[in-house]
Amino acid sequence: MSTTLNDTPSANRVHIAFFGMRNAGKSSLVNAVTGQELAVVSDTKGTTTDPVKKAMELLPLGAVVIIDTPGLDDEGALGEQRVRKAREMLRRTDLAVLVVDALQGMGEADRALEALLRERRLPYLIAFNKADLLSEAPPLEENALYVSAKTGAGIPALKERLGGFAGAVREVRPIVSDLLSPGDTAVLVIPIDESAPKGRLILPQQQTIRDLLDAHCSMAVCQPQELPGCLAGLKEPPGMVICDSQVFGKIAPLVPEHIPLTSFSILFARYKGSLLQQVEGAAKLSRLRDGDRVLVCEGCTHHRQCNDIGSVKLPGWIRAFSGAEPEFTFTSGGTFPDDLSPYALVVHCGGCMLNAQEMQHRSAQAAKAGVPMVNYGVAIAQMHGILRRSLTLFPDALALL
Which of 143-147, 349-353, 364-368, 374-378 is predicted with the least confidence, judged by mean pLDDT? Predict the structure, then answer.
């Protein structure tokens, strides 16, 4: 089944970012690739002040996000902030385009960025822009090509080259469908409380439902209080029960031991590639001491309710479980500290609004700093004494306990 723009959340799209120096023609090239006046173009250096994103279809990659970034040679205090924003985009980039002024050639800063792309093992192309101004075009390396945003020369070739990375850019991971067989039934327990968005389901629930449908599995969806009746109404035991992390403690006693039980958050820890690290990080919860700094991170930004899980419920559960009084710091959206050394523990959401590259970057950053990291679902299961049971579907993670 082909992936289309309309059914692909931003976090699941391939992120293609255009990097380079000021006036290399990044914005003009982005406009040429997207076929739209997405970015403001000017001869004035530093016109692009913030990353600009555009969702589009680029076959055979499918649905992608094209990102135009500020110049990496920007100057002054404001320029430094712009450069930092551009470098932050590297954390979310699946495929990079290094745009170089063909008349100027590769400079020291361009080569430094290329070295960084190699260090991060990011696939990339070098687009030598303004090729229409060259009197002759010297031969290029295999991963480079000449283009002209002004005349359109080389743009089809650039798009074709980008599309050629389809098999190498991103490993497609299932959320849950690989744990079931066609025809199996999964029961999804979704509480509708004051924190639930009006008239819709949250993204992890939507994506899990879609993954189950694609695998030709059936579903029964209910609220926690309806679970006993839901299970009793099924002719055969379900293949698994998946619940919202907040109701783990209420749900576990209602689900017979022979039925696998897990949470959306645990499934997304595996989906984003960090379940083993999260399970190891759960052990830190019982070792917290008074004054330890705990960083609580959410990948999205939303209006916090009076009983918000990240800023209210989790800190309360952590205090009760650890018997300590840690200090909590909260971040949301794209904010994530470069220096994690002050923290004793990172507690992260499931990351449904962040792409895999960003989540893996955050996981790697925590591992490099030697700071344990655990996500909401794993932490809640640990604190409610049901982590072992919630990991029965994942033998590698279970072996860590």
Answer: 349-353
Tokens standing for residue 156: 């089809």
Q: Tokens at residue 98, please?
A: 């290094």
Amino acid at 67: I
**CA–CA gap between residue 91 and residue 71 (Å, rounded):** 17
293-298: strand order across its sheet? 327-332, 293-298, 345-348, 373-375
Amino acid at 277: Q
The tens digit of pLDDT for each residue in 306-357 reads: 567 888 889 999 999 999 999 999 998 778 888 999 999 999 988 877 888 7
What tens digit of pLDDT does each residue of 62-79 get?
Answer: 788 898 888 776 666 665
3-class SS of residue 145: strand
Question: What's the CA dihedral at 291, 294, 295, 298 to 10 degrees?
Answer: -130
Higher-pLDDT residue of 357, 15: 15
User: What single-letter amino acid sits at 74?
Assistant: D
264 Cβ contact partners less than 8 Å away, ≥ 6 residues apart: 204, 205, 208, 242, 243, 244, 245, 350, 377
Confidence of residue 35 (pLDDT cuts 50, 70, 90): confident
Q: How far apart are CA 273 and CA 280, in angstroms?
A: 14
R_g of the chain computed on alpha carbons: 24
In this structure, what token pair is assigned to residue 129?
């822009």
Identify the three-state secondary structure at position 323. Answer: coil
Dist. CA 377–CA 387, nearest whole Å: 9
- What is the full DSSP assignment across 217-252? -EEEEE-GGGHHHHHHH-SS--SEEEE-GGGHHHHG
- Number of C-beta neighbours around residue 272 at 10 A: 26
The alpha carbon of 136 is separated from its chain's Cα centroid by a whole number of angstroms, namely 43
CA nearest to 346, candidates 302, 286, 282? 282
The single residue listed with the structure tokens 């992936």 is: 3
Distance separating alpha carbons of residues 364 and 348, to the nearest angstrom: 13
DSSP string, 250-294: HHGGGS-TTS-EEEHHHHHHHHTT-HHHHHHHHGGGGG--TT-EE
Q: Report how far apart the first and last C-alpha atoms of the chain are (Å, whole number).
A: 38
